């Protein structure tokens, strides 16, 4: 009987998951991945194997009342019934915020959970749902070891000056500082980068998706990121503003009558590509649209990527490689092309044909600074961390 690790990324109405088994190799081997979406409304389970072939699906009856706990129970039962000689031995969770205390994956107990609860205001879109899945699984399978893997942990190597705001010390000492996010993705890319560019020391990685950020990595360690105190900072995203003059928030409160809830809704759910375009938060829709505002939203996205690329290069004091990853970064040749064209001053000689093929290298062979497309795998990174924690 092989022990499997269940990787969970929980949202408000969905559970993304992956199953891995430790066969004694360098990394756990994947069993499959999928999601349960529509929790609370019309739940639907689907799972695919490593090659992308659907190997299971289930739709609950329309009148079924399905909670996250019910969904998790169904998932574990499905794995143990359909994966030969496998039992779920542990669960690894993506937890967006680990604060100052958690700089590495950690086994979860009541004390850890209580500390993570205090960080909910710093990641209101993600943290509550991450923790809800942990509680649900603890309730149904209290004997199952659970491990929290943090999106902030990879960035704890930032130098102190990169973590600071120009605020009074008393506020900073209360935890108001730049944390950085998408760390599990960046850590996976840093782990894989030697396979593509073994001599690259100073690397900028662009994690471009509905949530988007960029990270400066030196010798495998994060030194700067576009996201700061929360995951709303930096690049414009699907529905999030990205970097915003704080005076705008003051204006909205003092002159427009916005309260805290309205500000939160605006910053996280009504802005970004959706707010600018008025069309969609999906880059595919914007690129296909004839609406001028859709094109303007794309222009804004590319402009800020190029601007932050320059800033991160300055933080690194040079650049040896640029990497695109995540949904847009891996799947949008047009966005990659537009970014690379704006970055030609850095020494990136773009290769249109290689880019159209999806890379992995999308710069010419003689480019002083190569550009790459490297698929990320946050779930695998969580499985690796979870296995390490369990082995002590």
What would the CATH topology of the largest domain be? Nucleotidyltransferase, domain 5
Work out the helix count. 15
From the alpha-carbon coordinates, what is the Rg to the nearest angstrom?
21 Å
The end-to-end distance, rounded to whole angstroms, is 21 Å
Number of DSSP E strands:
13
Into which percentage range does the β-strand content fall? 15-25%
Provide the helix percentage. 25-40%
Number of domains: 2
Overall geometric form:
globular
Mean pLDDT over all positions: 94
SSE order in H/E notation? EEEEEHEEHHEHHHEEEHHHHHEHHHEH
List keywords for this structure.
single chain, 392 residues, alpha/beta, Nucleotidyltransferase, domain 5, eight-stranded mixed sheet, five-stranded mixed sheet, 15 helices
Structure commentary:
The protein has helices at residues 68-82, 110-117, 127-140, 160-163, 169-172, 183-196, 246-255, 260-269, 272-277, 283-288, 292-316, 326-331, 333-342, 352-357, 378-391; strands spanning 2-10, 15-21, 29-37, 44-48, 54-59, 86-95, 106-107, 146-150, 202-207, 213-218, 221-225, 321-325, 371-373. With 392 residues, it is of the alpha/beta class. It has two domains: 2-150, ATPase, nucleotide binding domain (Nucleotidyltransferase, domain 5, 2-Layer Sandwich), CATH 3.30.420; 197-378, ATPase, nucleotide binding domain (Nucleotidyltransferase, domain 5, 2-Layer Sandwich). Strand 10 and strand 11 form a beta hairpin. Helix 6 packs across helix 15 and helix 11 (292-316) packs across helix 13 (333-342). The protein starts with a strand and ends with a helix. The mean pLDDT is 94.
